[in-house]
Amino acid sequence: MNEATISKLNEMRLFAMADKIRELGSSPKFSSMNPMDFLGFLVDAEFDKRRNSKMNRMLRTAHVKQTMACMENIDFSPKRNLKKELLPDVLSGAFVENKTNVLINGPTGCGKSFLACALANHACRKCQTTIYYRVSRFLEMLTAEKALGNYLKIIEKIGKLKLLVLDDLGPEVMTKEQRNLFFEVVEERYLTGSTIITSQLAFEQWYEVFGEPTVADAICDRLFHNAHKIRIGGDSMRKK
Fold first, then answer.
1. Which residues are bridge partners to 166 per DSSP?
2. CA-to-CA distance for 89 and 96, rounded, in angstroms?
3. What angle do CA 164, 95, 64 make, to 5 degrees?
4. Which structural domain, as residue segments, surrounds residue 77?
5. pTM for this one?
6. Cβ atoms of residues 55 and 124 within 8 Å
7. Are 26 and 39 found together in one domain?
8. Quick one: DSSP state of residue 239?
9. Which of 46, 230, 233, 237 is the most exposed place for a label (fewest CB within 10 A)?
10. Tell me: the pLDDT tens digits for 170-202?
């Protein structure tokens, strides 16, 4: 393969293919390689490089709090009430494709955020658009964007995400404006995207966080519908 071809590949920004040609050109197997196998090596090299670049970009823009959280490090000991066999869709990430929610509750330090972050990182590695927020920061962001006149744009953007992670819901009761903003997000994402929410509160207490009963019913009905509910128990993981 001559340098002119390599130069053209670089000009078309097919850098991985160009590098692979140089690598294969110095291999004694190059001359006897089947043309389709050779082409396959080049395409695989370019595909893998672009996919890895996309994955790394998504990991950066997701702003996941615990960047090292991963599925392999989740503690499934019986005292934590986490059983692998009961969570196949969650642990495989299929819940994102199925557009269902994951709701996690449990006491302080039990690993709610770690599990949520592990699921978020897993989604990013599958090149699924993801973003992480603490609930308090999320509400502040929505309020600020509304004040700037970007409300519809940000709601549309959040609605298009494959996965939205909202960490630490409650116990403070939302204001009327916060409640309405939260409802708009839930409504926009209903049956179109997946949302992970963590909270110290029992699921039955989430209604109280939203305050006004009618809106609380509307929010919780959409969140709980087809949701995977995970109740984590055990002592604080921070003690370890």
1. 133, 197
2. 9
3. 35
4. 63-239
5. 0.85
6. yes
7. yes
8. G
9. 233
10. 899 999 999 999 999 999 999 999 999 999 999
β-bridge mates for residue 134, sequence order? 167
Contacts by 69-78, CB closer than 8 A, 24 or more apart: 69/114, 69/115, 69/117, 69/118, 69/120, 69/121, 70/118, 70/121, 70/122, 71/118, 71/119, 71/122, 73/114, 73/118, 74/111, 74/114, 74/115, 74/118, 75/111, 75/237, 77/234
Q: Among 127, 157, 126, which residue's Cα sits nearest to residue 142?
A: 157
CA distance 48 to 3: 23
Going by C-alpha positions, the residue among 61, 69, 127 that lies closest to residue 96 is 127
Picking from 61, 167, 65, the residue whose alpha carbon sits closest to that of residue 124 is 61
* 33 and 70 assigned to the same domain: no
Angle between helices 15-25 and 35-62 (to 10 degrees): 140
State both tokens at 12. Answer: 């078309």
Sheet with 130-134, side-by-side order of all strands: 130-134, 163-169, 194-199, 102-105, 228-231
> In one letter, which amino acid is 133?
Y
Residue 240 has pLDDT above 80, yes or no: no
Assign residue 150 the CATH number of its domain: 3.40.50.300
